[in-house]
Amino acid sequence: MLTTLAHSLPPGMLLIVGAILVPALPGMLRGAWMLALPLVGLGQVLLLDNGTYLTFSAFDLQLAALHVDRLARLFGIIFHIAAIISVIYTLHERDPVQQVSGLIYAGAAIAAVFAGDLLTLFVFWEMTAIASVFLILARRTPEATRAAMRYLLIQISSGVILLAGVIVLAHEGRGIAFGTFDINDFAGALILVAFGIKAAFPLLHNWLQDAYPQATVGGTVFLSSFTTKLAIYALARGYAGTEQLIWIGTLMTAFPIFYAVIENDLRRVLAYSLNNQLGFMVCGIGIGTEMAINGAAAHAFSHILYKALLFMSMGAVLHRVGTVLGSELGGLYKSMPWTTGFCIVGAASISAFPLFSGFISKALIIEQAAEQGYVVVWLVLLFASAGVFHHSGIKIPYFAFFAHDSGKRCKEAPLNMLIAMAIAAAFCIGIGVFPGVLYDLLPYPVDFEPYTVGHVVGQLQLLLFSALAFAVLMRTGIYPPELRSTNLDFDWVYRRLLPRLAGAAYRGIATASAAARDWALGLTRALYDYIVSHHGPEGVLARTWPTGSMVMWAVVLLTACLVFFYAR
Amino acid sequence: MSGHGHKIPPGETPRWLDERRNVDKIYYGLIVLCVGSVAADLFYEKHGHYQIEHLIGAYGIYGFLACVGLVLAAKELRKLIMRDENYYDDDADDGC
User: Fold this and answer.
1) For residue range A218-240, what is the model confidence (pLDDT) as tens digits?
2) Are A112 and A227 in contact (CB under 8 A)?
3) Which positions in chain A touch B24 (Cβ < 8 Å)?
4) A465–B77: do the CB atoms touch at under 8 Å?
5) Contact yes or no for A495/B88 (Cβ under 8 A)
6) What DSSP string runs through A345-392?
7) What ipTM was assigned to the predicted interfaces of this complex?
8) Which of A3, A78, A207, A234 could form an SS bridge with A154, CB 3.0 to 4.6 Å?
9) Partner-chain residue, chosen from B7, B71, B92, that has the shortest CB–CB distance to A406
10) A388-401 per-position pLDDT tens digit
11) CB pairs under 8 A between A and B
């Protein structure tokens, strides 16, 4: 009975519809309701059997609102867990805008995961964009509002490009099932761009670092979980084994870490490292072997938890201190010992310390890169692993909680925030210690032992020596200090270069049009003068000639005739 | 972790980490751990995919060089891309 019920509604719809009731509920009841929705939703996902359900046809197109397989189930589970953690983290908030949009956003992402066709995917794809923008707008500052508008523009564009791909597929009569696509045909390329925008491919990435640090304390935690990982899921389903993705992913792991080292806003540092972590997943999808896809999926799972944990700890700092600028913080471990501890768990997980979640998921991808013979990729991934420890593992906790004591004293984070962080931290450690639990959920059977002496010692060496590098650079004063600054990234192109080019083009056109007008006016004036000089009151052709001169000219002509007459 | 630049409010007892020599202890402890991790390489048989992995302390050397390179490169990057904190503040005028 329950199982039938579970298959009668696309997962996620519960959160979307339930969110509408939220503003009407008072106090404690509202919190309980918001928590109950993703909990029941999680139960629903666990009851689902593999297969395609809720199919119907519209305009000759076959639609399927519920498609279940192992990959979809894995993302469905982790999205629900992320929703539960995010809701707990924001329980102290009374702002209904954030509560409603957060739930609809999570619900839309979950529903998109279970979409069996591209039209259903498109609908929920755009719904995530529209719902999530309110999490940025809810910050209610002019900067956030402008960032939100840029974010919305880019996110909606992704959906429009997806729709264009769907239309091409439908027009060519190939059906719109959410299957696998070929990057070499037009529709496949369009859909890849749509996915790539949300997955923050290089040069398409900047909405992430622009918008996430501008969102509310809780909004960023919601945002960090869904949009980009929905894109990773979509790529894993549609483009597994597409070789170009290996190189895109490798580039993604490397370039954001340079920015992360010099960025001062610690939530933006996390946004850069989020981008870097997505690179590992994209790389795994590109490699495309069963183990590499397992690696990408497992890494998405553990990434959602440790990234949310890191964003939660920085959110707690922002909530209590009012800033997350590295240059303003330091010594907060004295005021927020629990938050410090949870942050360190998140840092250890993203850095892939043995016994933490990142270790058992990232190893699958790096191992596959080595095994498939991608030497350069393997070296870059190792470099990025050392780098991510450097800026997320050390820099974040160090500058926020240790470093120079800023003298700032505050209260520990609210209880609900601590509980949410504790749950995420427990998952990070649990997955690290018992990797089999996560491995059993992966799309393909796992034949991999993360805890071999070689893996553990190698990884410890990499991390310990990275830490040593940080310590040496810090003590010698070579490490760049945290500075209040803006670092130019690709968004400069559309925030400065294009507006300037447009301005210059406008001025050029204005100058040219003025010149053309002057020339045309001059020409008209000359023509006018010419006409006036001939036909005007004083003009040769308009002059009234005296009768005498007429007679004289008549005589001259007649005389001429006479002369010709005789001359013959 | 370093001792200078601290602004401890008056009347507050300094913590263990506030003392310079304790920070030094952590630093030397880290060096000991690093040496230990390299020494561990001597005691097991390596099964890497590439020859380079079989070098003693290969991962440690790579990690250290990667991080120093990363930070030095990022410092250079700063010269190129760092602008004033309020660089984008006149965005409002452009409407974006």
Assistant:
1) 999 999 999 999 999 999 999 99
2) no
3) none
4) no
5) yes
6) HHHHHHTT-TTSHHHHHHHHHHHHHHHTT-HHHHHHHHHHHHHHIIII
7) 0.88
8) A207
9) B7
10) 998 888 999 999 99
11) 176
